[in-house]
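Q: Joint fold for the lines below.
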Amino acid sequence: MAEAWKGPLQKVDDWRWLIPRSYKKGMLTDGMIYASEKMISAIRKDQAPEQVANVACLPGIVGRSLAMPDIHWGYGFPIGGVAATQEKGGVISPGGVGFDINCGVRVIKTNLTEEEVRPHLEKLLSLLFTNIPSGVGSKGKLSFSIPELEKVLEKGARYIISRGFGFKEDEENIEERGAMEGADPETVSSKARERGKGQLGSLGSGNHFLELEVVERVFRPDLAEVFGLFPGQVIIMVHTGSRGLGHQVCTDYLEEMQKAMNRYDIKVPDRQLACAPCDSPEGRRYFSAMACSANFAWANRQLITHWVREIFEQVFQKSAASLGMFTLYDVAHNIAKWEEHEVEGQKMKLCVHRKGATRAFSAGSPALPPRYREVGQPVLIPGDMGTGSYILVGTELAMQETFGSTCHGAGRVMSRSEADRRSRGRNIANELKERGVLVQAESKATLREEIPEAYKDVGEVVEVVERAGISKKVVYARPLGVIKG
Amino acid sequence: MNKFEILDHTADVGLVAWGETKEEVFANAALGMFSLICNVEEVNGGFTIQVEVEGSDYEDLLVTWLNELLYLFEAEEVLLKEFNIQELGQYYLKAQVEGEPLDTQKHHVQRVVKACTYYEVKVEEIRPQLWRAQVYFDI
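A: Joint structure:
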């Protein structure tokens, strides 16, 4: 296993831990980890805090190098990392977004209760499993021509909705209304298109899933009402990203930026942090290709939403609209975005990298649709399979401290090989069934690598962001059934 | 000498490959990567592809080489098991790789490897006739 990290962590309060910039030569700012005392000992077990310090070395970083409580050891950036860089003199780093560009989550609501869904659960899961392609290298059911793929890259979910795969109102309940600006398909290589074109409308594998859940606890009834959530309600969570297209875009631009760094005389402590000035041709091209990949991911989640609706219509013999199957929200958790934030009393345009972190804008943000503008953004936090999920809301303190960001999930605590050792000889699907969760999985190996104990307790993660004040709990939803790749 | 071994990493997977020559260490790293993806014992030969990649040093070449093979796996849908490195300089690699088109009835694809990263990448000759390479994959 990895070496433990022995650097300095100064306790600011019960939920904040500072890595002073004096820790390491090259750090331009402090690092800040949001965690409980109990979590800190686990966080110290590997090199994740060193990665927080490394990110603090990125040219043009503004504010602190941040890490959310689901922080874990990544490559380059830690997972759970947030860093903002300035427009002039700042850099953009593909490693600060990761390979699965716009890996993210969508929640689709229903007006059905657990009692109404339970009798159909097995049928629903088996139809979802057969109709939504999942697994390694899974392929979408529809084939898209080259001009259609260009439109997906440029217009994301909006294009898919215009083709009839969705409700018009889905659009406003997706970050960026389902299509990021500045997405020029020219910047996406033919290799990336080759790798991604067949995969639009597929779940993929690894930690991606589709889950049926029931709202079990409501922490803030007033906010739950605005979100259209009630106790006993069945909701559907879709967790996937930009598939092979995004992986290849990140690969292509990391390679390009290795070379660009020499040209711009940029030095970073880890090659995976390769970057280029935001306003350089390389930086601008990467941003555009990343935006195309993000759009591909939103289109992907939109298509899957459409098929989920079709399956519910078939099983319940009612239209999706009369089943209340509206999109609550759709968030990205691996992305870089141009956002305006106030820093030391001044408004600044910043490139906010979120790698395993979720945007959590507060009430009043113009980026939110009118229905959420008075309360703040719904933040969707999946747990591991079998543990359940939380829906939070963004806060003003997050705007001030974390560039409007919060955690994204549970975060791994166990390596895949350890999970494999611990699950040897066990029937994971049966264990979950005993806990009331039905599972359909493409691969037994994935199921074993993704056992619940391989993850931190998502409840603890969420507790930290709530206590630290960077988001607030709205509801907790318990899983009923899961589709895994 | 083992051809390769897997390194534990909390979220992802690392790999160390060994070889008597730099060509062998590059080939063994590729074999190690495909053994993460599938059971290479199930893969036959017969299907060959010519691969050429460029890089700024051995480490960059190793990452670029492995990513090129991942691209072939996903875009061409081929599982690879033989890696014949024909030319390997500091900035250039040429190889003939061999395997079999993916047949989901026959092959068990276990895991998706999203990409090979530059994190802690190393290629070194630790002593004469012993090369060691290390990479981490995003899983």
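Q: Anything notable?
A: The longest strand of chain B covers residues 78-88. The mean pLDDT of chain B is 94.
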